[in-house]
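Changelog excerpt

This revision adds worked examples to the README so contributors can see how folded entries look when concatenated. The first example is reproduced verbatim below.
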Amino acid sequence: MAGYDDRDGFIWMDGKLVEWRSANVHILTHALHYASSVFEGERCYNGRIFKSVEHSQRLRKSGELLDMELPYSVDEIEAAKAATLAANNLTDGYVRAIAWRGAGEDMGVASKKNPIRMAVAVWSWGNYYGDAKTRGAKLDIAKWKRPSPETIPHAAKAAGLYMICTMSKHAAEAKGCSDAMMFDYRGYVAEATGANIFFVKDGEVHTPLPDAFLNGITRQTVVGMLRDKGITVHERHIMPAELEGFQQCWLTGTAAEVTPVGQIGAYNFEVGALTQSIASDYEKLVRA
């Protein structure tokens, strides 16, 4: 497949659809220099974006957390996504909505005089972790930690917060792994580089408390599904030493959906019945 800058199709930018290859920004765009950007990753199934409104609401909220009020309402963002899917004749695929501070009168840390811009791109995208959906992903343990909420707006889906995720995933791939699990600044288990994490022990589910990282929309959906099934879910701080006692593990995220994990560092997990059940139930839900 061609690179993401060289494809046929259309991208919605600042209120209009433009030809894919023409969807460009200036080299002095503020976001390129200072990470003043927020985004959403969404999936469309059978012509419907799962939890679309929640994603649009979070995009605006992320902007507010970065002192960057988006010039588009939730309804306008929804219309932009629908128009982009229609223009590209796509009913099943990935949706990327992004907002950023563009080029303008300011070119320093402060950027109040620069316009806040927005775009929506869509494309076909298969399993984020390839065949890990059936055999379980292999994860490295990252050397980087999720920072304290006193140092970052951890509830924002902000581009700058993914810098250490990119480095951690590169290091993991160099070791033959699909991804990396990260600890938080206190040493508790946090998440993968772009997905939340769940563990199973004796029929109960344990997942890190999202007090230092993004509480994913897919994570919230899966917690609700588990509780609806009568399964006990513990949202709590998890120590690294506990990994040895967990029997199953999976990741959740819009891109990852529900992906089983077979190994984290030296710890192994089975792709067990509960993992398979919740993955199947999630697949049915998003396509309902």
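The second example, added in the same revision:
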Amino acid sequence: MATSPFDDRDGVIWYNGDLIPWRDAKLHVLSHGLHYASSVFEGERVYGGTVFKLTEHTERLHESARLMGFQIPYSVDEINAAHDVVLTANGIRDGYVRPVAWRGSEMMGVSAQDNRINLAIAAWEWPSYFSPEARMAGIRLAISDWRRPDPRTAPVHAKAAGLYMICTLSKHKAEQQGYHDALMLDWRGQVAEATGANIFFLMPDGKLHTPLPDCFLDGITRRTVIGLARDEGIEVVERVIMPQEMAQAREVFLTGTAAEITPVGGIGELTFTPGDLTLKLILAYDRLVGRTNDRAARATTSAA
């Protein structure tokens, strides 16, 4: 993974309809999106030069903006086409794309009805979210002190910048304690998700169980993995999961655009062993995105 700062790289970024040099893609310090979190975004993976499920991501970007009270001034088709321009201009074959839309700096205050809605799209090479060693061994999750909010208190189904504040706080504390990430409960004390990924449990009934996404994002990768599991004849149960039930799980894994399918080896004091079902789904996911199966083969060897 590149180590240079994200504001000092070669390449170009699509910014309000034009390709501009990477280092020139700036916004004013008094932009509304910075002060009041009026910003939405997507995270997308590129495999072989193609964004995986691009239209689903772009449609969700539009829906997130709607939930945040603004409209992106580019259609789904226009945004999809801009992705192709960005990938080609930067020579990205396997990487990550970040579209982001935000209210500009025309007005400064809680109300900013007339502010321009800006859209930028950046792409860069980016391998696994976690290191290969951590993924194959099973990452360790702390349990966050912060909880996913009640839908009556925040637009929880938008991929909005402000909703990630508690994710950053949770992940930073987990890393300081020696964990890779954090598991978040919701305001009711039910299992919700990790800081940037959904969670699945293989329970003793042989079924995959995953929390109902009623106060967090129903991830695109989450839905993809549910489909893959059902294709493999595995029943998936979406339901309320309480923290005390996690001790019964035989296998646990996370799903997300960046994390893909990441085995979990521990949550707090609980330990798990990545197993055959998780590896089967990793193989199925790799086939779906057109990736070679070297990573899954290494996982099988590691788990043997």
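Reviewer comment on example two: The mean pLDDT is 93. The chain has eight helices and 16 strands.
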